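thread from #wetlab-drylab

HS: before we spend reagent money on co-crystallization trials with zinc ion, can we at least see a predicted complex? here's what I'd submit
DV: go for it
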Amino acid sequence: MRVQFWGVRGSIAVSGERFVQMGGNTTCVVLEHEGHHLILDGGTGLKAFGDSLHGKPITATLVFTHVHWDHIQGLPFFGPAFHPGSQISVRGVSRDGWHFKDILSLQMAPPTFPVRLNILVGLREIEDFNTSAPLDCGPFRVWSIEQAHPDGVVVYRVEAGGRSVVFATDVEHGGVPVSDAFVEFCRGCDLLIHDAQYTAEEYAGQAGPPRKGWGHCMWTEAVEVARRAQVGRLALFHHDPGRADEAVLAIEREAQALFAGSFAAREGQVVDLAAAP
Ligand SMILES: [Zn+2]
Ligand SMILES: [Zn+2]
């Protein structure tokens, strides 16, 4: 399974020389195995992934963790979604009696946006994700678990070719020991992609306002999960939009001292998970 990061930034896209190394696009990760694509989230990084296909259609499944702006804003600019040759299945959880398709439609309606969702002819189906059973799409099997976040979030565990990736963005563990249930969900995965938006000082309010209840983690909590769940590698993800490259690199060094398999996810980075023997 091949994993590529197309957007690693949290909350809002950023640009400028302070963000060149990590990248400024918001969340989008693409998994590829045996020619099939599974796209996790459609932040502004999704546009960059679409552009990389140079006008070609795609057969893919696109799964959303939740519908905060930084996770959906790339969809109306995702070129392959406009291509009549594309076969894209979309999944996300329903909320408050709303089907996922109706929720997604809300971002694409006048007067805040001129293009409606039904123009995207490459999106063949937009269905609710059933969290009570795994989803099979191509060679991928996808499990899910709900976690604490304002308006809710779903964490996914994807398995293919004997390898596994957990995508845990926008989760808040709350500064207390991470729940056993969550650690078990992540147990033994080859790659854990985990929210790491804050430092302990930021979360506690010693550097700006307290961030408790904002829906994100301290990077130390991501390390705690990686160690307890004995994962292969840890990708620190959803970098704070105010965090310049040097500061992310400093966090990366500290994390590596605590868990050797840690790295800060960078836009464009590829992680190749060879098939299990
Ligand atoms: Zn987010
Ligand atoms: Zn969010």
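DV: The longest helix spans residues 245-258.
HS: ok that's useful, forwarding to the group
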